[in-house]
Write a structure and sequence with these properties.
By secondary structure, this protein is α+β, with helices and mostly antiparallel strands. It is 53% helix and 8% strand. The protein has 16 helices and ten strands. The strands form three sheets. The protein has a five-stranded mixed beta sheet, sandwiched between helices. The chain has a three-stranded antiparallel beta sheet with strand order 4-10-9. Strands 6-7 form a two-stranded antiparallel ribbon. Helix 4 (67-73) packs parallel to helix 10 (177-203), helix 6 (104-126) runs parallel beside helix 16 and helix 10 packs across helix 11. Pfam families: p450.
């Protein structure tokens, strides 16, 4: 794996997407080791054909942990399929607790908590002259919210958040042996802690997401098997990835792009009624999940390209959302455009079940910041660099002054 080339691609994939859209058919991209699906129509079609394009390997690792790290991971408790990389009946089984647990009613019930925590975090920001909004806001609020919904002890939330980032580093970054082992050991500790929660909720159910997952994946009063416990832990880890990392990424990117475009930020400060469309436009403009892999389960055709059985695709939401065939002036952020058909939260059977929860947090942050810190500006000395990742695209830090 040429990580230097992959990093360069991931930090700014949009020129590559534009070239791919201009080419006839699909384009094979060596950095991704996959056929890039870049047009809006082709991406929607691929996502609407799960029987032809399997989700197995949706998050295929770019880095393979060495034997020492694999031995450390074996001391953990996760062992089972997850909703992101499953198909058919297995996918429906794993998705059911996500859909029920993140229902409109449950998200509505959490809105008071979201508003209260957002206000408290902004209180802390307002007391200072500036801050890194990635560290002080974007990585904190979604962690606290998903921890609240899951029923985690607040003291466990920082470790849970850190574990999510370590898991992606281990799978997608070129760590040395020591770094791999340290990450694997911490992930294993987190899995064992999550197993404690799973067994506790099985014995004493509560009104929280952990209980919902346990009851869906391991129904009945009999003692949990190790396989059942591991399956619950894996699904809860997947929930943390989807419920925290991607919302954090979109929050940070949203603030970056709005603050970079002063007229857009000031329009929001003057008219909070624009906030819902601003959230949608930011999800379109720079999607936190740029795409997922799919594998052709049989010979087929997509976008005019004949694909053999086993062909690997990278189905790019980020590319589709900048397709000029779908969006006028797609490379321009415009919070008045109301892009209701964007793919920032996916499409089809794998569409994001937590989209409503993400929108609630993003809206709360914009309401609070535009009201309390309308003079916020990116530090003129800040150097903005995007993380080299396709699954939680975000600035590494965002230094802002007010």
């Amino acid at each position: 794996m040429d990580f230097a080339a992959l990093d360069a691609f991931q930090r700014d994939p949009y020129p590559h997407y534009a070239r791919a859209r201009r080419e006839p058919g699909l384009t094979f991209v060596p950095e991704l080791d996959a056929w890039l699906v870049a047009r809006f129509a082709d991406v929607r079609e691929a996502l609407a054909r799960p029987d032809d394009f399997s989700s197995a390997g949706a998050l295929r690792p770019d880095a393979v942990p060495g034997p020492e790290a694999r031995a450390a991971l074996a001391e953990g408790a996760g062992a089972g399929g997850v909703v992101l990389s499953s198909d058919g009946p297995a996918h429906r089984r794993y998705r059911a607790p996500h859909t029920r647990g993140l229902s409109a009613a449950r998200v509505d019930a959490a809105e008071e908590f979201i508003r209260e925590r957002t206000a408290r975090l902004v209180d802390g920001l307002a007391a200072d002259g500036g801050a890194d909004l990635v560290e002080r806001l974007a990585r904190r609020l979604p962690g606290e919210v998903i921890g609240h919904l899951m029923g985690l002890d607040p003291g466990d939330v920082p470790a849970v958040v850190r574990g999510g980032y370590l898991a992606t580093d281990l799978a997608f970054r070129p760590l040395d042996t020591g770094g791999q082992v340290a990450a694997a050991e911490e992930i294993a500790r987190l899995q064992r802690r999550m197993e404690d929660y799973v067994r506790s909720r099985h014995a004493e159910p509560r009104d929280d997401l952990i209980t919902a997952f346990v009851q869906a994946l391991a129904p009945g009063a009999q003692e949990l098997t190790r396989e059942q416990s591991g399956e619950c832990v894996s699904s809860l880890q997947n929930l943390l990835l989807a419920g925290h990392l991607t919302t954090s990424a979109l929050m940070a990117s949203m603030l970056l792009h709005l603050l970079r475009r002063r007229e857009q930020w000031e329009a929001l400060c003057e008219d909070p009624g624009l906030i819902p469309d601003a959230v949608e436009e930011c999800a379109r403009f720079d999607s936190p999940i740029q795409g997922f892999r799919r594998r052709a389960v049989r010979e087929t055709v997509l976008g005019g390209t004949a694909l053999p059985e086993g062909a690997v695709l990278f189905v790019s939401f980020g590319a589709a959302n900048r397709d000029p065939a779908q969006f006028a002036r797609p490379d321009r952020l415009d919070i008045t455009r109301s892009p209701q058909r964007h793919l920032g939260f996916g499409h089809g059977v794998h569409a994001c079940p937590g989209a409503r929860l993400a929108r609630a947090q993003l809206s709360a942050v914009l309401h609070e910041l535009t009201r309390r810190l309308p003079g916020a500006r990116i530090d003129p000395h800040a150097r903005i660099s995007m993380l080299p990742t396709m699954i939680h695209r975000s600035p590494e830090r965002l230094d802002v002054r007010w």
